[in-house]
Amino acid sequence: MLLECRQRFGDAPRDFGDAEKQHLRVAFSLITRIVSRSDGLCQPLSAQRNIFRDGVVVWGHLIQANGGLFEFGQRDLPGEMVYSLRVPDFDPAKLEKVATELVALKGKQPTSPALLEIADYLTDEMIRVFGLKVPKTISQEACLISTVQFVRHHLPNQMLSDSVLPIVVAPQPSHYAFVLPAVYWPDQLLRHWGVARPLIG
User: Fold this and answer.
1) Out of the domains of life, which is the source (predicted)?
2) Which residue in 176, 161, 166 sits closest to 5, CA to CA?
């Protein structure tokens, strides 16, 4: 399914038509309704054209997300995702194991400085990270963590219905990421989410 996502989205650098550009675009106003422009959530928006043009399509696994994303709504909201760029076809089942170990750190005070950084960030829920390395004690596969703003019109049913999603990640630091819009998802993945193919426009 990931290969088909990549085929549908195309090879980088991508050249989008006007309708695609409009569909991909994430308006600043959708985020600045809930946070200030100094919030780290706004950083990927400034780079969104480059992310969609040059980004790498990989599986991402949800670590945690704003609870409003699990129900229908209008607001785009943030969450945290783990993924691997070094192993772009990383098994989602292995990603799930990594995500489970990461979320277990929330509210804890581990002695390892690297684990404590992740624990503090997940507990705070207002810290933004982009390309934060997952310690090798959790994964040897060079996994990274990024805060992702979940754009409602990019999701197949405008809400989160699963923990595994294809995401588009900037190949160079900072590793900003967006969910791959569902118009580029394969039929099998859309059926898994219980939706028909959305349209551009």
Assistant:
1) Bacteria
2) 166
Domain boundaries, the chain: 2-192
**In 10 A of CB 91, how many CB atoms?**
12
**Given the structure tokens 């390892």, which residue do they identify?**
112
Quick check: helix, strand or coil at residue 2?
Answer: helix
8 within 8 A of 57, measured Cβ to Cβ? no
The answer to whether 118 and 132 have CB atoms below 8 angstroms apart is yes
Instruction: Specify the 3-state DSSP secondary structure of 37.
Output: coil
For 93, list phi and psi in degrees, rounded to 5: -65, -35
First CA to last CA distance, the chain? 24
Contact between 193 and 159 under an 8 Å Cβ cutoff? The reply is no
pLDDT at position 33, please? Answer: 63
Q: What percent of the chain has pLDDT over 90?
A: 84
Cα dist. 67→71, 77, 161, 182 in Å?
8, 9, 12, 21
* pLDDT > 70 fraction of the chain, expressed in percent and rounded: 96
For the entire predicted model, the pTM comes to 0.94
- E strand intervals along the chain: 56-65, 77-84, 130-133, 143-150, 164-169, 177-179
Mean pLDDT, all residues of the chain: 93
pLDDT over threshold 90, residue 39: no
